[in-house]
Structure formats: C-alpha cells, structure tokens
C-alpha cells in the first residue's frame, strides 16, 4: 500500500509494524529500543489535556508526520494552508520531519529536549506505550464530537484503557491480494477457511508459485495473522487484567504451519514489500498473491509493471477467511493515527486539523492509505484499476469493519525484542513454537512493570 517510493528498511533488523504511506517505514530495532525507554515502575498516567485556545491564549499546532512526497497526492503543507483559510485564528505549522526509520528517532529527540510536537502521526501499535508513559494527552472530552465520522474499529486504535489520545488516520485492513488468472490456471479458488488458505499455498508452491511472501522481520505481520485467525496476542479482560496469548496452543499451531510453508514449500522470505526481491518475484510471475494491507498497492503496481504486456493479469482483493465459529473478523495491519501530545496548546485546533486530514482522500489514497474517517466519495486511481475498478471503496469498507477487540499492548517493544531471535528461525528445523513462551514471559514482565495485572 504506497507512492513515489520512499525508504523502506530492507535489512535483517526486525521491524515494528508501521507502514507509513508507500515507504512502509519500519523503524529499526535499536532505534525504537532507544526511542521508547521507560521507567520500569511507570504506571498509566495519561494527563488530561488542557486547551488554552478556549480563552484565546494560543492556537498554535505543530504537526509532525511521515507521509512521503507524492506528485499525485495533496501535501500536508497544502492541507495546512487550506485549513488556515477556513480557520484564520488557527496557526498550523508542518514540520518537515524525516521519512523512514529516522522519523521515530527524531520524534523521541524532540520529546527528550522538551520540543515535542502538538500533534504527530504515530503507528497504531505504539500508541499504548506512548500513552502509558504519559507522553500523550487524554483528549476524550474533546474527541467525542468526532465519533460519528469514525467507525469504532479504527477509533479503538487511538484509544488506550478507554481514554482517547487523538484521532485515527488510516484503517489499513489486512487482506489477500491475488492474481486471478494464475489462480484459475492452478485450479485454486479464494479460500474460505484458514485450512483452505494453507492448502492453496501448498498447491501453488508445487507449481513454483507463491500465495504470499513472508515478511520475516515484520513481527507485526505475524501478530496480525494470529489476530485474523481469532487469537490476538493481547486482550484486556472485563476486570482490567491483561491476557497474553503469544504462547497459546492456537498461536503455536499457526507458527508451525507457516514454518512448514517457509521451510518445505519454499515460501519466499522478504525484507519489505518494496524490496528489489519482491519486484523480481512479481515481475517473473512467481509471486501470485500477497497478504498485506492497502499501503502495499503502489509497490504491487511497480513490481507488476515489469511483466511484459502479454503476461499482465488482473488481480483482485479478497477478505481473509473468518476464524472458526466467528461470522467475521477483519484486523488492521500497519495503520497509523494522529496522536495529541500532552502539552498541546490547542487541542481543539489539533483535532480539527487531524479530522480534516483523516477525511481527505486526495491526501491519503494515492499514498495507499485508506481514510479511517467516513468519506463520501472514493475514487480508485487509474494505475490501480487492474485490482478492480472499485478497489478503494472495497478496502475502505473492510477498514470500516475492523474488529475492536485487538488490544494493542504497551509492552509491544519488549515483545518485539524477545521475538527477534525467532525471525531467524523460520527456515530452521527447531520448531518456532518452542520459542514462544519466552516471548510471552517478556511481554508479561513488561506489562507488570507498568503496574498492570496479567492473568
């Protein structure tokens, strides 16, 4: 899902699950470890935001973002200019922040030097940790007026322990992209169960074709797969206790199945969907599917452009199978939100600008981002027509139906650090499932350090 290709981490460092626009920014492990270092005894302490603009004191809003440049899309500078014309009292300043892995490091430096922005684009998966550590402001009272323009699933991504920290930006549903003609010639259909999906993967592999790549360093991708099958890694129980399912029997079985596909069926390991390796696999016709999110479409377009015109096929988007016993489960992967920081001088202006950006299809869609807000009209770019003339509306509809019970954890950083050795084990003989208890223990310890209870 993304634009003129920005930077994407193609190293062997594990990524942390944020795909910002086309560049799929994946902050490196060391970057994020230093980025979010917190007191071991920290407890949830999101300060209630105070709006100084209400008394006419201060309407300044400093905005950080990581939307890469795109000639087909509106720029954030244009958005700020238009917003200022409609609200002359507002003073929106767009910070020219780094695009790529350095963005979060820049942001942390600004926080550490008391120069934090008022409003910043954050990966959804890191919102709980920023909130838990008191970096963000509780804007629940201010944000209530925007609930009607955002569906509940995306809204849950910027909510932590029932307190709203900002507004969602993009919905980013996890879906299956597939080459219609290649699948037809292989005699396989869109799977309706997860067992079927894995059988399709095996059938395609026997023909030298692959149902998807496996982003070995992207821990959030495998976490999203587990979530989609009905086993999210984290859940908050009704009594406030945290449930950690990383080493559950369901996740262990899923890990073994995917390890078998990687090791025995030759499923290609990737280090980012914009990597030359993926472009080559798409161009050769070997990669005939991809489990990912809308932000991968620009890279899909680029890779498929390598095929000769005689071998250009139509692709389609399909919803992933529902878990056994559930009518529907749509999960998010790699989305981001607008987070309001605790010292924001004008929460009212910050949220109004965030809502304006989140509803602007011209800002988001060319970058492969599906607006999290309700938008009246969505147009599929001409270059995307091979995936379906109405694919943007289709993806937007799926994003609106994202599940709300996938709790993102403030212990995500510790989880990723503990999971890192597994990224090198998928091709080995040792069962990945045997390594999961150590990851679950690390997540539990960090959760308890925050003063939260673990079942």
UniProtKB/TrEMBL annotation:
<keyword id="KW-1003">Cell membrane</keyword>
<dbReference type="Pfam" id="PF13416">
    <property type="entry name" value="SBP_bac_8"/>
</dbReference>
<keyword id="KW-0547">Nucleotide-binding</keyword>
<keyword id="KW-0449">Lipoprotein</keyword>
<dbReference type="GO" id="GO:0005524">
    <property type="term" value="F:ATP binding"/>
</dbReference>
<keyword id="KW-0472">Membrane</keyword>
<dbReference type="InterPro" id="IPR050490">
    <property type="entry name" value="Bact_solute-bd_prot1"/>
</dbReference>
<protein>
    <submittedName>
        <fullName>Sugar ABC transporter ATP-binding protein</fullName>
    </submittedName>
</protein>
<feature type="region of interest" description="Disordered">
    <location>
        <begin position="1"/>
        <end position="24"/>
    </location>
</feature>
<keyword id="KW-0732">Signal</keyword>
<keyword id="KW-0564">Palmitate</keyword>
<feature type="compositionally biased region" description="Basic and acidic residues">
    <location>
        <begin position="1"/>
        <end position="11"/>
    </location>
</feature>
<keyword id="KW-0067">ATP-binding</keyword>
<dbReference type="InterPro" id="IPR006059">
    <property type="entry name" value="SBP"/>
</dbReference>
């Amino acid at each position: 899902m993304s634009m003129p290709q920005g930077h994407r981490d193609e190293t062997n460092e594990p990524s942390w699950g944020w795909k910002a626009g086309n560049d799929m920014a994946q902050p490196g492990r060391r970057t994020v470890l230093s980025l979010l270092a917190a007191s071991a005894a920290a407890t949830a302490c999101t300060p209630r935001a105070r709006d100084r603009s209400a008394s006419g004191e201060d309407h300044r809003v400093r905005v950080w973002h990581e939307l890469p440049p795109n000639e087909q899309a509106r720029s954030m500078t244009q958005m700020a200019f238009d917003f200022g014309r409609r609200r002359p009292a507002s003073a929106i300043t767009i910070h020219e922040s780094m695009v790529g892995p350095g963005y979060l490091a820049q942001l942390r430096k600004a926080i550490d030097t008391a120069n934090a922005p008022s409003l910043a684009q954050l990966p959804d998966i890191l919102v709980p940790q920023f909130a838990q550590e008191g970096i963000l402001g509780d804007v629940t009272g201010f944000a209530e007026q925007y609930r009607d323009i955002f569906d509940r699933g995306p809204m849950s991504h910027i909510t932590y322990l029932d307190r709203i920290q900002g507004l969602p930006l993009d919905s980013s549903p996890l879906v299956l992209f597939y080459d219609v003609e290649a699948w037809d010639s292989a005699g396989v259909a869109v799977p309706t169960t997860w067992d079927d999906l894995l059988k399709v993967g095996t059938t395609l592999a026997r023909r030298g074709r692959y149902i998807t790549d496996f982003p070995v360093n992207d821990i959030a991708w495998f976490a999203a797969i587990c979530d989609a099958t009905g086993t999210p890694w984290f859940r908050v129980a009704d009594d406030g206790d945290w449930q950690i399912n990383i080493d559950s029997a369901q996740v262990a079985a899923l890990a073994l199945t995917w390890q078998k596909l990687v090791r025995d069926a030759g499923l290609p390991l990737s280090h980012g969907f914009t990597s030359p390796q993926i472009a080559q696999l798409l161009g050769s016709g070997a990669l005939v599917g991809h489990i990912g999110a809308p932000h991968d479409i620009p890279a899909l377009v680029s890779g498929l452009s390598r095929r000769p015109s005689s071998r250009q096929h139509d692709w389609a988007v399909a919803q992933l199978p529902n878990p056994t016993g559930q009518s529907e489960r749509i999960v998010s992967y790699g989305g981001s939100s607008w987070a309001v920081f605790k010292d924001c001088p004008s929460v009212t202006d910050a949220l109004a600008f965030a809502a304006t950006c989140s509803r602007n299809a011209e800002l988001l869609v060319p970058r492969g981002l599906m607006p999290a807000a309700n938008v009246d009209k969505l147009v599929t770019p001409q270059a995307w027509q091979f995936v379906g003339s109405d694919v943007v509306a289709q993806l937007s509809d799926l994003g609106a139906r994202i599940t709300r019970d996938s709790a993102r954890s403030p212990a995500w950083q510790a989880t990723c650090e503990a999971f890192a050795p597994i990224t090198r084990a998928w091709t080995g003989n040792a069962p990945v499932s045997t390594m999961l208890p150590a990851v679950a223990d690390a997540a539990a310890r960090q959760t308890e350090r925050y003063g939260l209870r673990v079942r």
